[in-house]
Design brief:
Number of helices: 0
Number of strands: 11
Structural class: mainly beta
Shape: globular
Strand content: over 45%
Largest sheet: 7 strands, mixed
Length: about 120
Amino acid sequence: QVQLVESGGGLVQPGGSLNLSCVASGANLDDYGLGWFRQVPGKEREFVAAIARERGHTFYADSVKGRFTISRDNAKNTCYLQMHSLKFEDTAVYYCGAHTGWGVMAQGPWYPYWGQGTQVTVAS
């Protein structure tokens, strides 16, 4: 069973950048599709980006398209989320998820494995 640990969150000004990492242990990451989600208090977890286990196909929420990039390095068992041009509304706890299906998954219930989350705060 895979375990996921996110890191890289922090405080950044609007327009700034952050790079999140999700390190997996207990399994080979190339057996999993991956995704990033975010959540603010009082709201449901929201899809951000996903990357498939095969051929690295990616999919993004409209709200982050062109600003965020998801990638994976299976040799390092790590998934990344590069975030640029950050906005106030990007403030949230960001979670990494993993699933054993094929293709990209944009719905949280498809992900049985989650990390503990990392806080991203965009403030001036």
